[in-house]
Structure formats: C-alpha cells, structure tokens
C-alpha cells in the first residue's frame, strides 16, 4: 500500500470517510439550487453525486487491498443473473441507440458495483442508524424547500423555481420525485423512533426530530402526489405489521408520531383548501375523485404504456426487443395501440418517452422471457435471504424501500434522479449486509502497490470524465438559455456536449437542428450539409423518434423543394410530416407544417412546373 493511502487510513477509517461523504451528499450537495434544462438531462449536482459514488468504490477497493479480505453477499449471484438476463437480450437484437445503451448499462452495472462496494465497509449498528438519520434530515430539508415553493417565496430567494406558486417539486423539480423522497423520510423516522439510540437524544434534539415529522407529512400533502401517498400508506401498514412487538413498549412515542403525522396531513389539506378556495368537504370530494377516477389522462397514459409494452413483448416474447431499445421502438408500437382504440386514448401519448413508467414493463418489453426469468431468480434469492434474516428485519427493509418501489411501478425515479438511485442502492446494501461471506486472499506487496496504482489511475480517468461532463453540461445550459431567449447562441457552447459520451445522446440532435436552421439561411452554400442532415434524420427516426426529428426533416425537404422548385422534395416533405403525425397525431407544429407544405405543393402543381428527370440523392447536391 503506497504511503499516501496508508496515511489516509491511519488518520481516518474507511467507514468514517464513507460517513463524511454521505453527510455531504444528504445534507448539502443534493440540495444546492442550480438551473437545469429539465428532468431528462442530469442536474449539475448529480455529477458531484456520481463523483462521490466513484470515490466510495475507490476507497472500498483500497480497503480490500489493505485488509486482503473481500466481503460478498449471498445475493450477488442472483443479482448478476438478473443483470445478465436483462442486458444479454441485446445479443439477439440490434442495438438501435448505442449512446443510450452505454448510459443504461452504466446505470445498471454501476448500481451493482456501488452495492458491492458498500458491503466492504464494516458499519456498526450506530453508524447505520446515523445514515438513516441523514436520509431523514435530507427529507426534512427537501420538505422545507417544498414549503417555500408552495408559498411562492422562490421569487425572492435562489430556490430552483416551480412554474407557479402552489406547485411543489423541490430541488428535484418533479412532484413525484419530491413526494417519494419525503415519504422515505417519514418511514425512516417511524423506524428511528423504535430505536434506543434515538431515545438517548436530548430533549431539544427530540423536539427538532418530531417537528421534522410534522413538516414531512405536511409537504407530502401539498405535493399532491398519488405516488407518494400510496407509498407512505403501504409502508406504514407494513412496518406496523412486522414491528408491532417492538412498538408495544413505546406506545406513547408511537402515538406522538401518529398525532404529528395526522396534524401535518391536516395542515397540508388546510393549505390546499386555502389555495384552491374550497371548503374542506369540497376539497375532500375533489381529492377522492382525483385519486380514484380511472378516466384521468394520467391513468389512461399509464394504461397505454403498459398495453404498448405488452404488445412489444408479444411480438418477440423470448428475447424481447433488446436492452435499451425501448425508447427507439416505443412510439411506433404506441401508434398501433392508439389506432386500435382511438376514442379511449384520445389526448394521451403526445410526448416521446424512453420508459413505460414501470420497471417490470420495461424489463418484459426489452428482454422478454429472459428478463422474466431474471426477475424471478432475483425474487427467489431475496425471499431466500429474507427467510434467513427473519420476517421482522425483512419487513422493515421492505417498508423502508416501499416508497421507492411503488414509485418504480408508476414512474422511473432511478433514471430521473441520481440521488434516488444512490439512496436506493445504499438502503439495499444495508438491507443485504447480513451473512456476508469473507474471502481472504494473499497478495505480494509489489502486486498490491501496482493494483493500488492502477486503481488510482482509473479513478483519475473517471474524475476527469466527470469534470469534463460537468463543464460541457454547463456550457449546454448556457447555449440552451441563450437559444430559448432568442439571443445569439454560440455554437461553441454546444460542441463539447455533442462530443461527450454521456451528453451527446441529447446534445447531438440539438446541434443538428440548430445547424440546419442556420444552413437554411443560405441553401446554395450549404447544400452538402442539408443533404447530410437528411441522411442523419432518416437514421435518427429509428434511433430517437422525437417529434422534432420529423419536423426538421420535413422542413428541410420543404425548403429545398421551394428553393429549387422541385415537386419531389415537397412530396417527400409531406410524407415525413405524415410519418411524424402517425406517431404524434395531436402535434400542432407538425399539423401546421403539413398544411404549409401541401399549400406549396398544390401551388407547384397549378403552376405546371417542369418535373426533373431524377431527384438528386440526399448525399448529392443539386447541380
């Protein structure tokens, strides 16, 4: 072990370093208010969480080398089989979007590596409780941010803005992400009240703790998230069922928790009634309908996603459509499902999606029976493990993860939020940290130093990539803001993101669209680029079929047809717009564009324009 690392481990244990990293993430990093394009592209703070994740893995590897002991969970083999079955489906299918395949693989495999790394830390029970307290405090901080947004105070302080007062999304900028985080904090608090460690707190600390419970339950209601409410209710029922013996001796404390929870819920409903200018009774009727009405668009959209996913599965039931291919194929299958029942699905599915808002649907659609076998194998391993640790512990860990698990069945939080992904892996690692198998190995000093050096080199490469991605993302944000506000957006700010391994999946289309806009200002000088763009857009329709691809493809063809007076281009432009409308039938931009193209096409026909003998190839400029 190099002297530098010996010095680190002599001053601070690996476990203490881990707690410092976790404290920084939960109490500070994830709550920084920074501008963000939207939920699709990661926020700036999430790059710091990625770096922290890499640091956790790096220190765990050094710890293994130092102690010459590797700790393994009995669940390892089941998780590996699940990952292999899911990703392995791509062997039988073409990779349609290589960029997204790499991102999805990193998300899945990286989660396993981080989970494995957490097991290398020998945490005491008190340290585990401290981690749960950090999660609770993080939820309280997020709750305060949500309450600030509810009252519209983000106008006066630098909090990530909501569209209007009364809307709550916290730093996550999405109400379901906010609500599942708050719900997790509530369930963690219900677990902590049963521990002797919390009962040893001073009176002042206990008052602050219980005040946090009130804030969490209040903010859960004002978030107006069915996902969060469903998650917290099921988790409370489960934790009371499995820990009823533990709660009996502390009935007064549990009663206080329940009263504060009910008080917070009541306060939340009162604030909503004031905001909506409704009486409590009318508000209750409105919320019951909001929760139970199956005709709501959000419900019908999810049913549409599930039905479409099942159609994708039926077409290729054994190996599915291939890992990470869902986003490339979904809109085409959705169009068929909507066509089969247009009245019911009217007004749904207007936006491109790369996830069916349900992890099981995603696995079934992408990997078919292979993926189902992987899930069943994983469930078997978990049930076998739970049997060993006892139903009380098993129920407790399941309850702690229930808000996330419910959220994963109704949305995709682990993809939208790195903080959710990191916390899910962390709680999962603590839940599976029992019966770890310790494997000792012998390694020569020179080989140990070489391994530590190699690990350090890999960590440096990882850190450099994170920093470059962070810089490129911020330049992308600058470009997007300038472009959205109609300013002279500098293309130089977009190029680093276009060439970045992570960002190019979203940045490359932006670059191509922006360049096409500029090229159309002088068609004669930019013919070659425009034909290259048309070739790219044809491929992009199969890679990421977002509506803008069809819009720009049709508009470029229309502009060429109008400029050169060639009807064939206009005909191709109509076809491209109709192809887009087949996937996005209610897209107004495509409708207007198609109408404009048809008017120009009829104008050409009436003028009796001379037809060219041959339509130039998209790769060849017009002579």
From TrEMBL:
Keywords: Membrane, Transmembrane, Transmembrane helix. It comes from the Bacteria. Residues 212-375 form the O-antigen ligase-related domain. It holds the Pfam family Wzy_C. It comes from Thermodesulfovibrio yellowstonii (strain ATCC 51303 / DSM 11347 / YP87). One of its GO terms (biological process) is polysaccharide biosynthetic process. This is O-Antigen Polymerase family. The chain crosses the membrane at residues 17-41, 47-65, 77-95, 101-118, 130-157, 177-198, 207-223, 229-247, 254-274, 360-382, 394-412, 418-436, 448-467. GO terms for cellular component: plasma membrane.
């Amino acid at each position: 072990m190099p002297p530098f690392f010996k010095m680190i481990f002599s001053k601070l244990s690996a476990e203490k370093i881990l707690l410092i990293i976790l404290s920084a993430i939960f109490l500070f990093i994830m709550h920084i208010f920074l501008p963000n394009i939207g939920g699709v592209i990661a926020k700036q703070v999430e790059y710091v969480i990625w770096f922290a994740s890499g640091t956790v893995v790096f220190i765990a590897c050094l710890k293994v080398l130092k102690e010459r002991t590797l700790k393994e969970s009995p669940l390892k083999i089941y998780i590996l089989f699940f990952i292999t079955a899911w990703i392995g489906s791509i062997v039988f299918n073409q990779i349609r979007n290589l960029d997204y395949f790499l991102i999805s693989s990193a998300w899945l495999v990286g989660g396993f590596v981080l989970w494995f790394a957490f097991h290398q830390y020998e945490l005491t029970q008190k340290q585990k409780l401290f981690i749960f307290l950090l999660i609770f405090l993080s939820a309280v901080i997020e709750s305060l941010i949500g309450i600030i947004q509810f009252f519209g105070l983000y106008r006066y302080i630098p909090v990530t803005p909501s569209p209007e007062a009364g809307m709550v999304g916290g730093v996550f900028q999405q109400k379901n992400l906010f609500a599942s985080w708050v719900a997790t904090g509530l369930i963690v608090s219900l677990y902590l009240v049963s521990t002797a460690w919390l009962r040893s707190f001073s009176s002042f600390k206990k008052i602050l703790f219980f005040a946090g419970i009130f804030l969490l339950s209040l903010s859960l209601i004002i978030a107006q998230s069915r996902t969060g409410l469903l998650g917290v209710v099921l988790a409370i029922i489960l934790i009371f069922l499995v820990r009823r013996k533990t709660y009996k001796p502390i009935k007064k404390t549990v009663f206080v928790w329940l009263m504060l929870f009910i008080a917070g819920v009541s306060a939340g409903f009162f604030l909503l009634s004031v905001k909506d200018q409704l009486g409590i009774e009318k508000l209750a009727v409105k919320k019951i309908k909001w929760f139970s009405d199956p005709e709501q668009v959000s419900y019908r959209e999810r049913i549409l996603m599930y039905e479409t996913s099942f159609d994708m599965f039926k077409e290729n039931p054994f190996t599915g459509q291939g890992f990470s291919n869902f986003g490339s194929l979904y809109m085409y299958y959705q169009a068929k499902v909507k066509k089969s029942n247009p009245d019911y699905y009217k007004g749904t599915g207007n936006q491109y999606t790369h996830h069916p808002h349900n992890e099981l649907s995603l696995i079934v659609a992408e990997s078919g029976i292979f993926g189902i076998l992987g899930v069943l194998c994983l469930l078997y391993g978990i049930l076998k493990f739970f049997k060993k640790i006892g139903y009380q512990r098993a129920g407790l860990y399941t309850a702690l993860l229930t808000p996330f698990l419910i959220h994963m069945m109704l949305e995709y939080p682990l993809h939208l939020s790195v903080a959710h992904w990191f916390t899910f892996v962390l709680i999962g690692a603590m839940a599976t940290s029992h019966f770890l198998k310790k494997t000792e190995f012998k390694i020569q000093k020179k080989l140990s130093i070489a391994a530590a050096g190699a690990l350090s080199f890999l960590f440096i490469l990882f850190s450099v990539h994170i920093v470059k991605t962070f810089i490129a993302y911020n330049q992308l944000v600058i470009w997007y803001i300038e472009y959205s506000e109609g300013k002279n957006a500098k293309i130089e700010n977009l190029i680093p993101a276009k060439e970045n391994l992570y960002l190019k999946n979203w940045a490359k289309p932006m670059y191509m669209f922006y360049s096409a806009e500029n090229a159309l200002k002088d068609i004669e000088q930019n013919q070659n680029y425009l034909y290259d763009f048309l070739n790219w857009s044809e491929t992009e329709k199969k890679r990421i079929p977002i509506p803008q691809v069809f819009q720009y493809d049709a508009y470029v063809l229309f502009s060429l047809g109008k400029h050169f007076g060639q009807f064939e281009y206009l005909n191709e432009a109509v076809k491209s717009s109709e192809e887009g409308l087949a996937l996005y039938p209610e897209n107004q931009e495509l409708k207007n564009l198609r109408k404009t193209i048809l008017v120009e096409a009829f104008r050409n026909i009436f003028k009796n324009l001379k037809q060219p003998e041959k339509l130039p190839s998209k790769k060849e400029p017009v002579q």
